[in-house]
Design a protein that fits this description.
The chain has 9 helices and 7 strands. By secondary structure, the protein is of the alpha/beta class. It has one domain: Rossmann fold. A 7-stranded mixed sheet has the order 3-2-1-4-5-7-6, sandwiched between helices. The model has no long low-confidence stretch (mean pLDDT 96).
Length: 231
C-alpha cells in the first residue's frame, strides 16, 4: 500500500472544509511564542492558526500535495516524511511544542511517532495529541451489541489504520517520557453518522459540548491530550 499516493490523491480532491472548533481547542493550548512542530499537519490549516498567533511553525506530512497547499497558505517550513518508514529529520530537543492533530490514526506505528515527537521536543516542552476517540459512548454501546460499524468522519472512518482510547493514549505517551497534564474533548456534533439530528438543537448542543469537554473519554468524538516532556 502506497500511502503517499493515496494521500496525494485525497488532497488533490478534498477542499478546506474542516471542524474549526476542534482546531481552536488545540490552538488555545499553544503558547504564542516558541518553535512549534505540527506532525502530520496535512494542508496547514491548524499550522496557519498557530502561525498567526506568532509562533515559528514547521509542518510535516506524508503527502507532497498537502505540503504544496500548506505553502500556499503561508507555511514556509514544510518537510515531507513518512513516519512509518523514517524518523523526523530534526535534531533532539529542537521544539518547544509538538502537535499531532488527527494524524496518528493514519499511520501503522503510532508508538514510533510518539517516540519521535518526544525526541525532538525540548525537556519541559509540550506535546499535544488530538485523536478520534474509539471509547465514545456510542461505540461502547455498539460493541456491547456485537457491532463495530465503519462510519465516515467518526473514529472508525475507513481511512483510519489505528484506534485509540484516552487510557491507551496516556499509556503510550508515558512510555516515551511524556507526562499527561490535561485532557479536553471535542464533541463533533456535526457528524451525522455518530449523532441523531436532535443533538444539534441549541440547548442539547450546548450541554453535550460541556459533557464532551469535561468527560472526553466517554462523550467526545476526538480527545485532546496535553503532555509535558520530563526534564
Amino acid at each position: 500500500m502506497d500511502l503517499k499516493k493515496i494521500y496525494d490523491k485525497k488532497w488533490r480532491k478534498k477542499g478546506d472544509d474542516i471542524d474549526h472548533s476542534k482546531l481552536d481547542l488545540v490552538v488555545e493550548k499553544v503558547s504564542p511564542n516558541g518553535k512549534v512542530l505540527d506532525v502530520g499537519g496535512h494542508i496547514g490549516i491548524l499550522a496557519k492558526k498557530i502561525l498567526d498567533r506568532g509562533a515559528d511553525v514547521t509542518l510535516t506530512d506524508i503527502s507532497r500535495v498537502a505540503l504544496e497547499r500548506a505553502k500556499k497558505r503561508g507555511i514556509e517550513n514544510t518537510v515531507q516524511v513518512d513516519l512509518d518508514e523514517k524518523p523526523l529529520p530534526f535534531e533532539d530537543n529542537s521544539f518547544d511544542t509538538v502537535i499531532s492533530c488527527s494524524s496518528i490514526e493514519h499511520i501503522f506505528y503510532p508508538q514510533r511517532m510518539i517516540k519521535e515527537s518526544s525526541r525532538v521536543l525540548k525537556p519541559g516542552g509540550k506535546f499535544i495529541l488530538l485523536v478520534p476517540n474509539i471509547g465514545h459512548l456510542r461505540f461502547r454501546l455498539w460493541l456491547l451489541m456485537g457491532r463495530f460499524p465503519y462510519i465516515v468522519d467518526t473514529p472508525t472512518d475507513e481511512e483510519h489504520i489505528r484506534f485509540m482510547t484516552v487510557y491507551e493514549a496516556k499509556k503510550m505517551c508515558s512510555i516515551e517520557g511524556l507526562k499527561p497534564e490535561a485532557l479536553d474533548g471535542s464533541a463533533g456534533l456535526w457528524v451525522k453518522g455518530l449523532y441523531p439530528v436532535f443533538f444539534r438543537l441549541k440547548y442539547i448542543r450546548f450541554f453535550y459540548t460541556i459533557l464532551a469537554r469535561h468527560y472526553p473519554s466517554l462523550f467526545s468524538r476526538s480527545f485532546i491530550l496535553v503532555c509535558r516532556k520530563q526534564k
